[in-house]
Amino acid sequence: MAIVAQETKFARIFWPVLAWIVALIFFFPIFWLVLTSFKTDADAVKPEYLIMFQPTLENYLNMTENYDYWRFALNSVITSVFATVFTLFVGVPCAYAMAFNPSRHTKDVLMWMLSTKMLPAAAVLYPMTFLTKNFLGIFDTHFLIILVLSLINLPIVIWMLFTYFKEIPKEIIEAGKMDGVSTWGEIRDILLPLAWGGVASTALLCFIFCWNEAYWTVRLTTTEAATLSKLIEGNRARGAVLRQAFGRFHSSGRAHHRSWMVLPKAACSGPHVRSGEVMSVLTPEFEFVDRASQSIRYLEHGWPTELCRWHAHEEYELHLIVATEGKAFVGDYIGPFSPGALFLCGPNLPHNWITDEIGETAPVGLRDMLVQFNQDSVDRLKIAFPEFSALDDMLARSRGGIEFIDFDFSQARHALEGIRDTLGADRILRVLQFLLMVNAHPKQKTLSETRLSLPKAQAGRNNIADVVDYLTQNFAEDIRLEDAANMAHMSATSFSRNFQKMTGSKFSTFLTKVRIGQACFRLQATEEKVATICHEVGFRNLANFNRHFLKVKDMTPSEYRDLMRSELMPATEKSHG
Fold it and tell me: Is 351 helix (H, G, I), strand (E, B) or coil?
């Protein structure tokens, strides 16, 4: 008896202790994740702060402010809850029928449903993506994700409910039938109360499966219905991991900003590039303008013509569309044009106007009227006549391209015809008059902030201009409004008000547009993956990048890349591609 009592006492101590040890081993990673979430990035890798450290909520604030966490979380809740409800709504009647009204094929049907879980998901991914995106139009919607989650979890739910329902005596259900209870009444009033525990555990397991599902939610969404799985997938991209571990590339003192590369003049003699040369995919042709005999060049042409190509030059270009409709490509901007559209493109800004060729489009004799002048001429003019400094703002903004909305078509055409029909000093005066006219136009749309460089005139303006220059060159940094305000030696409120007044955009909106513009250049000029470009330009996750890109450009990054190359790549290169 003494030995039995000792063993019993030993067992009462040993097994609980062993259970606690096993539980601690399994739950320690979760505890460590939670503990690390209250550390800064620096403290998380320092041994001295392993246990004792100053807790901070910086990581949680960062998630909510920069990652749009709550939107992803809400999508996860919506899709998981509705998918669970829909699966149970279908699964309970199915399991009821199989448990209480079986046929000779019931077991075969159950095995077939279970066998569908063995089908590789990748086998149906492409056809499902193709159908939902191109025919059904439900790609990246809550409806699609709820439907998919319901279908992939339905076999397990039916199997579990079938097992629970089989344990309920069939006589109880038959007694309900004898009392005149309907089929729905049997399920609602008899079956569910008796099997409530099993239904609840099945619902909980189904909800967990829906919440943790990553394969389908990542691949069938981009922005609108993206769940937390998409957010996590975006942050697992290689660029984000490297920056978290080693810091950003530009912190080493090397320049991070990469401006648009323009072909050297000597390299423009032929349309093809030797295979040994490292060139971009969509490098604009450099156009040399001979100003030996005249400082201002007038040009007009029709469509189609070899003059219409993706190109850039050192001169400013004031460009009027006289006929046809199509797409304007100015830097990273893509937008429509129609007769009367007036643009001003700054130095070295790639541009082209592509007429929509629907059906058999007849050639147009006159489509474009344009005038070109260079920065040196403007600078010399301002030295002689300081009053012309009033053009500085417009010329600075033209480095990102300007469209003059609703400018009087007949007035613009008359002005350019006058420039065309004159020479010498008279032509110069007419150009200056036209520039002053468009400068006074109230509706000026800046096409891209990527190249924006504001002129500096007074102290406050100098500070804002310095910040703008810094943003356009260090766009990948984690720059906050408070940091920019300190750089401008202003309070956050004062800086925000003055910044919006000068640039026409809020600070966060401006920075986002700069990053999107830089992403556009990389999509045009490199073969880098979208995920890599996303992190290179300063976005911390792919889903957030896709959402902002779609908002700014009305298309996804991949669609933008395809459109640029299909419209602007020379036909010879397309045929070789």
Answer: strand
Q: Inter-axis angle of helices 142-166 and 196-212, to 10 degrees?
A: 150
Are the C-beta atoms of 327 and 336 separated by less than 8 Å?
yes
Of 112, 92, 207, give the one whose Cα is nearest residue 153: 207
What percent of the chain is modeled with pLDDT above 90?
Answer: 22
State how far Cα 291 lies from the chain centre.
43
| Average pLDDT value for residue range 528-542 | 84
Q: How many angstroms separate the CA atoms of 394 and 446, rounded?
A: 10
289, 307 Cβ separation under 8 angstroms: no
Residue 322's closest CA among 350, 302, 306? 302
pLDDT tens digits, one per residue of 367-379: 999 999 988 888 8
* Edge-to-edge strand ranges of the sheet holding 285-286: 285-286, 311-312, 351-355, 326-330, 333-337
Write the pLDDT tens digit of every residue in 224-260.
888 988 887 765 443 333 333 333 333 333 333 333 3
Strand partners, 336: 327
3-state helix, strand, coil in the chain (%, to 5): 60, 10, 30
Strand partners for 424:
none
Alpha-carbon torsion (65, 67, 69, 71), positive or negative: positive
pLDDT digits (tens, 9 = 90+) for 322-337: 998 888 888 878 888 9
Is residue 508 a contact partner of residue 551, using CB atoms and an 8 Å limit? no
CB neighbour list of residue 506: distance below 8 Å, 6 or more residues apart: 496, 499, 500
Q: The tokens of 353 are what?
A: 């106007």
Strand-pairing partners, residue 320, are 342, 369
Residue 119: count other Cβ atoms within 10 Å of its Cβ: 10
For residue 170, pLDDT over 90 is answered with no
Q: Is the pLDDT of residue 456 over 50?
A: no
pLDDT of residue 241: 35
**Element of type H or E holding 303:** strand 296-303
As a whole number of angstroms, the distance between CA 172 and CA 190 comes to: 8
